[in-house]
Design a protein that fits this description.
Layout (H helix, E strand, L loop, with lengths): L7 H24 L6 H26 L1 H31 L7 H29 L3 H17 L4 H14 L14 E4 L2 E4 L2 H24 L5 H12 L2 H8 L9 H22 L20 H21 L1 H27 L1
Helix pairs in contact: 1-8, 2-3, 2-9, 3-7, 3-8, 3-10, 3-11, 4-7, 4-8, 5-10, 6-7, 10-11, 11-12
Length: 347
């Protein structure tokens, strides 16, 4: 048997089918690079969301409500974190002036790298959980720390990441202009890398940071590696189309960062509570579980996570406070883009 109530055959077929869907999506982008229309992007996003809902219903039917709730809670959490990832992708695309026609390929590359990195972290996380029960203390503390930094509205991490990318690519001969979607080009008879290399390195590093954040979060909702992996796949499906569908709306979701901070903190507390109720550390309560600590159920977690996302969206889009914050954010983004453009022209 695979995960509770599921056969190994079901898990293998499910994962194979999902990988095939992602591969077909990749081939579609490579063979036909273009900027999707709102209709095309909307249809793809609706298809992938519906597919995730149906898959969760199948899990619920096959293995019971516990596994179904774990999948939905994990999927919503990872999807929310992936939307936050889109904010960073938008910044990267703007900073490196990636032509709109080739942004789909860049996004697909980012999604594949994210999937590979998350698969590695999932395997490592599952192995640690199986053999090191106290790892939940570390996961919980890490999520609380991440939630605190997520809440802060500064650009220190972004500037630090930019500096690392410059160091990694400082020795590479990089041309000033793009040559379609190529990584290499010829300038005055000299072979050089295109700026696309910088874009790929930056996105790869961003994916690594998000994988480090997201995997402990979902392990706080389920200990099934199968659920963790499928929830991550569904969270990444349609992310490319969602980028074009939301467009300027991304700048309007000003309270999403706060919502994600709350969700990460909530899951961090849930992980620490779980660690306390399964305590094996000798210096804490004599190595015995602490029975008075409340247990946060998966159903309650699902309600909290979904409600937080809905409230953040409503506050961002339909309240005067959200509209004022969005206008301020857009003005600051425009000013920053103007300054960066002037500096680039000066170079």
């Amino acid at each position: 048997m695979g995960a509770s109530g599921l056969t190994l055959q079901f898990e293998i077929i499910s994962l194979a089918a999902l990988c095939v869907i992602l591969l077909l999506d990749l081939l579609y982008v490579v063979r036909r690079p273009h900027e999707p229309s709102m209709k095309e992007a909307g249809l793809f996003v609706a298809f992938y969301v519906a597919l995730a809902i149906i898959f969760g219903a199948v899990l619920w039917w096959q293995a019971g409500p516990q596994l179904g709730q774990e999948f939905y809670a994990g999927w919503i959490t990872e999807y929310s974190l992936s939307i936050d990832n889109l904010f960073v992708f938008i910044i990267i695309m703007t900073r490196f002036a990636v032509p709109r026609k080739y942004q789909q390929e860049v996004l697909m590359f980012g999604i594949i790298i994210a999937l590979i990195l998350r698969a590695i972290f999932i395997l490592l996380g599952a192995a640690m959980i199986e053999h090191l029960s106290w790892i939940f203390y570390i996961f919980g503390a890490f999520l609380l720390w991440t939630a605190w930094h997520q809440m802060k509205d500064d650009d220190e991490e972004e500037d630090s990441e930019s500096g690392i990318v410059k160091k990694l690519t400082s020795k590479l001969p990089i041309a000033k202009d793009y040559d379609g979607n190529k990584l290499r080009t010829t300038v005055n008879g000299k072979r050089m890398f295109t700026p696309m290399v910088m874009v790929f390195v930056t996105i790869g590093m961003t994916d690594l940071l998000f994988a480090v954040d997201s995997i402990p979060a979902i392990f706080g909702l389920t200990q099934s590696a199968f659920i963790v992996f499928t929830a991550n796949i569904f969270a990444l499906m349609g992310l490319r189309q969602l980028y074009f569908l939301l467009g300027g709306l991304m700048n309007r979701l000003v309270f999403l960062k706060h919502a994600l901070s709350f969700i990460l903190a909530f899951i961090g507390v849930k992980l620490i509570f779980h660690a306390l109720t399964h305590n094996e550390l000798g210096f804490l309560n004599g190595g015995q579980p602490i029975e008075w600590v409340p247990e946060i159920t998966t159903g309650f977690s699902l309600i909290v996570i979904a409600s937080t996302i809905v409230i953040a969206t409503v506050l961002s889009l339909w309240t005067p406070l959200g509209k004022r914050a969005a206008a301020k954010a857009e003005a600051e983004a425009a000013e920053k883009a103007t300054v960066e453009g002037s500096l680039k022209d000066g170079e």
